[in-house]
Design brief:
Chains A, B: This is Aminotransferase class III-fold pyridoxal phosphate-dependent enzyme. Chains A, B: Keywords: Aminotransferase, Pyridoxal phosphate, Transferase. Chains A, B: Its cofactor is pyridoxal 5'-phosphate. Two copies of one chain form a homodimer. The first copy, chain A, has 543 residues and is of the alpha/beta class. Chain A folds into three domains: 97 residues, no CATH class; 119 residues, Aspartate Aminotransferase, domain 1 (Alpha-Beta Complex), CATH 3.90.1150; 229 residues, Aspartate Aminotransferase, domain 2, CATH 3.40.640. Chain A has 20 helices and 15 strands. In chain A, the strands form four sheets. Chain A has a seven-stranded mixed beta sheet, sandwiched between helices. At the A-B interface, helix 6, strand 3, helix 8, helix 9 and strand 6 of A face helix 6, strand 3, helix 8, helix 9 and strand 6 of B.
């Protein structure tokens, strides 16, 4: 039985249906050729395993020529200036280099990121300036040179040949309906450290995706790495599910959501929401679910992704597309069939009163109210989005940001819901992996100790405002709705293709993002807001 | 639409429906009080963090009294004998101990498992003999003492007070519909090393569950630990999905299943089979799935777990309960609606010809044939069960044993199936975790280098035969159908309650298993077959 016919779907839903899925498929593939091919670049590694890129032409021209000299390890002011920007870790002496196709040796700067020196191939090289006048080796000169270093470093001289080769080899053997499948991105990200990700070719990017928002406190955060390492030698998975780490994490989650009574664990957000839906069915003896927003890829929720829906499959879930009138009328007509209302917060579209009203109406009809906080649960700070909105749900589902990229998710709820576990058969083999618990405990420690939510809200808002200002300066009608810690770009009023061109330009200028998805701030971005906006500005000048 | 009415369900299905789910719920809870309460035991840790258990009475009585002396570190023959049995790692000098409620000090043996000495609290102590006659300190004496050590160590003097306290605290806060929920087991397993698991109270058990069969090469196998540790500092998850580890693992899987063309990855077995079902729908343009066996907890498969099924939910999947006549008739009547046949191998019930016939009939009707090798894919050796049965499916789903307890699963199939990815929307955030790839690559190395499948088949068969012989000797009508590497106990002809009593006795005698589930052999069991059977024999004498 289906509760309604064809509906007017909200704008977000339309994007999901019309833009997002093809966006990862055919449309993007067609758009791909517009992206300029990376220029052929010398690819040799020197004896130290460092890669040398030639200097981009614009960077070279922008330098005032004068007496040239190499920039050496004693140029403390340069190194300090570079460090202060949080851009680069260590300045090492440049050496003469013969770029591919050029006859003349050019001195250049080699900059290493703050990484263990034994990590060989993923050192990042920033092609340096051709020279600097000797009489300007003061702080101003240092600053100017640094500007040039940055300008040069963000020039479209990125070499993606290894990534390209890998994608060619990989696609036939293993694939994934994610951006990489259609060569959406020319690079293959293989390493991360803090806010930065690095591709197979050694290029570095500021990461605005946070791996779908799951890496909230920075890639390879040492506290999380240590916690997981400690677990491994004790074994990861046992037949009994209870464990001190599970208990400790559950207690932390009950503190985080103070209205909650029990926490149960899964590996993915999709699974947690699926479990919550079934638990609600058992707790209420009702069979249908009324939902809005995206809740993962499982069958019950396919109505949100019409392309994926087999023709004759009918789910027990119905979308109300955030249409409050429709929501009310469905509950009035079918309230006693609805086990739960499941909503994903969209703080950039609806105010808190909207969610309070959703909850109130659900309660009037005896439905459980579940907030899908997979994205917002930790990004929003203690209590998740629910606390911001001033509501107490019957359960929340959480995952992203809980364990900084390690797969774990949870249903945190009232005992009324979770007590139905034995009957509802919502369990699986890997539910109690110790790695996930350890990673989550270390991440929650970090979130609380550093007040990550407050920091990302502040820095994220600065980035959001900065981005909006840059769009305005360039006369581009692009919006940035959302919160600081998680906003998206709105290209509705912009020329077709701008989203793709911008994404490609940002990539060339050292920013990794998906202009069709959220921009997820990470904790460390506090240090990198200026750099991010500088790179953004450079990209807008190079669309 | 449903293809058939109420059916005669096969014996396994009946067990699933009638036994297994309540088995984890009410029935077991009711049966629990039969289990004897652990006796009160001194629980103090000494300065070295070692726990001292008093000697079990039967063990003490069994020793011929004589001149007593402590067993010291120079008793090489003892240590060698102990090592040869694979039971214990290192003999450390015993010290006088005043057991709770006893006045006289008793010398005893303290035995450490082969673990890093800095692992403090999880040292395992085996209560030792009260003494040994000086004139018997030869190999025979060593052997006799060893017998005693084993006898004493397997006595029902286990202290589960910490586990009990943990379960009491834990249950209200976090729970899980797995055996621990209802106190099915009195112990909480928190550490594993090789074939052994250890509970919160420091008791050691030979693990016959292999954590649901997923830990195939031993808990905390160092090669896997190293591989995962190496990954952590490079970051675990990135926005792009392709990576050298994913490609390497996919290539390994295509070698493992030589007929296959592509591999795609998920975190759990349930998710992999769900993805395969949807991919088949997209690949064929048909909507229904015909299945037998257990394929996880997701909605489409709820018919296999009737308790969990909301009353009005209708899935696109139909169980044929391994009824070949029914299978044929459904395909004859509805063949062109069936996208795929999905079967879980049950080698203890059906021969290879049966699966060959299933495949043949499916192909006649243009259905894809998917073998759910989540349990068998690696346990059965290269090619999985499909290779043993001489069939080439269109896809297999694999998970357990692939990454030795780390959550990863895969659909390995023909490109016809996997190419539908973009359309089928079967992706999720954590699909490309590096930890899973690294753990799987290290595990596959190990599986191939040590021919794990052959070893577990050999040792498992020895255990299965040994267990059958012991049941016969004790006049217990219990069967052990299955393969060596994975068999189950059949209590159909036995007294009610025997399964529970046996499980409790095995636990007291240092064997951790679930008599209602598979007995999964691990690789290291090669070294421990004798010990396992000795413990089993002791448990049968103590039912």
């Amino acid at each position: 039985m289906r509760l309604g016919g064809q509906l007017d779907r909200g704008p977000l839903h339309r994007r999901l249906a019309q833009d997002r899925v093809p966006h990862r498929g055919g449309d993007r593939a067609a758009a791909a050729p517009r992206r300029p091919e990376p220029p052929p670049v010398g690819d040799a590694l020197d004896r130290r395993g460092l890669r040398h890129h030639p200097v981009g032409h614009r960077g070279v021209r922008a330098l005032a020529p004068g007496r040239h000299r190499r920039i050496g390890p004693r140029d403390h002011h340069l190194r300090r200036g570079i460090r202060r920007r949080g851009l680069l870790g260590r300045l090492v002496p440049g050496r003469g280099h013969r770029p591919h196709g050029h006859r003349r040796l050019r001195p250049h700067v080699v900059v290493q990121p703050p990484l263990p020196p034994d990590r060989g191939p993923h050192l990042v090289l920033v092609p340096g300036a051709t020279g600097i006048r000797a009489d300007r080796t003061d702080r101003t000169a240092a600053h100017h040179l640094l500007e040039e270093v940055i300008t040069v470093s963000t020039h479209p001289v990125l070499d993606w040949s290894r990534s390209a080769e890998h994608l060619r080899r990989s696609h036939g053997v293993t694939t994934d309906p994610r951006p990489d499948e259609d060569g959406h991105y020319p690079c293959v990200l293989t390493r991360g450290s803090g806010t930065r990700v690095y591709d197979l070719d050694g290029n570095a990017y500021l990461d605005l995706t946070g791996s779908f928002g799951s890496v909230l406190i920075g890639h390879a955060e040492p506290a999380v790495v240590r916690a997981v390492t400690d677990v491994l030698s004790e074994g990861n998975l046992f037949y009994t599910g209870a464990s001190p780490r599970r208990l400790a994490l559950a207690e932390r989650l009950l503190d985080w959501f103070p209205w909650s009574e029990q926490a149960i664990f899964y590996r993915t957000g999709s699974c947690a929401v699926s479990a919550a839906a079934r638990l609600a069915q058992h707790a209420t003896g009702r069979n249908r679910v009324l939902s809005s927003g995206y809740h993962g890829w499982h069958d019950w929720h396919l109505e949100a992704v019409p392309e994926a829906k087999p023709k004759t499959f009918e789910s027990y879930a119905t979308e109300f597309h955030n249409d409050l009138a429709l929501y009310r009328s469905w509950l009035d007509r079918h309230g006693e069939e609805i086990a739960a209302v499941v909503v994903t917060p969209e703080p950039h579209r609806f105010d808190h009163a909207y969610y309070q009203e959703l909850r109130e109406v659900a309660k009037e009809h005896g439905c459980l109210f579940v907030v899908d906080e997979v994205k917002t649960g930790f990004r929003a700070g203690a209590g998740g989005f629910s606390a911001l909105a001033g509501i107490e749900p019957d359960a929340v589902t959480v995952s992203k940001g809980m364990a900084n990229g390690h797969s774990i998710s949870a249903v945190v709820g009232q005992r009324q819901l979770t007590q139905e576990l034995s009957e509802a058969h919502v369990w699986s083999t890997y539910q109690n992996e110790q790695v996930g618990f350890a990673a989550a405990l270390a991440s929650l420690d970090f979130l609380e100790r550093h007040d990550v939510a407050a920091v990302t809200r502040r820095t994220g808002e600065a980035v959001r405002q900065g981005v909006l200002q840059l769009f305005a300066e360039h006369g581009l009608p692009v919006g940035a709705p959302g919160w600081g810690p998680m906003f998206e770009l709105d290209f509705d009023a912009a020329d077709e293709g701008l989203a793709e061109r911008l994404e490609a330009a940002l990539l060339r200028h050292g920013i990794f993002c998906d202009t069709g998805d959220d921009f997820n701030m990470m904790f460390h971005t506090a240090e990198h807001t200026d750099e991010l906006l500088e790179r953004f500005a450079a990209a807008l000048g190079d669309l």
